[in-house]
Design a protein that fits this description.
The chain is mainly beta and about 110 residues long. It contains one helix and five strands; from the N terminus they run αβββββ. A hairpin with a 7-residue loop joins strand 2 and strand 3.
Amino acid sequence: EHWLLGLLLAPVDTGYRARLGAAYDRPLSPRLRLRTSLDLYGHGAQPDQFRALGKLGLEFAAWRSASGAWRRIGIGMAWLNSDSYGLNAERQRVRSNDFLPLFDVVF
């Protein structure tokens, strides 16, 4: 996706990238955790246009490694609200809401 590449290269391309975020992590049982976060991103190309990225997921301890540490598998959903670089009929910028599945193996 172009928004991800834009965020990664923003410091070099536009001078800065800023992030403000909050996260919450709660154990639901000894092997199950709820994780959620909300981040706001801004960068120099569009200082007045922010991107919001929210995540909600469950991680469960799937197996133990040789050292005894739990290896986790995470599943969830992410929501991205960003400028879609388009204009509507009133010539106002259009924002898009994208929902993305999350899958993660944590070693």
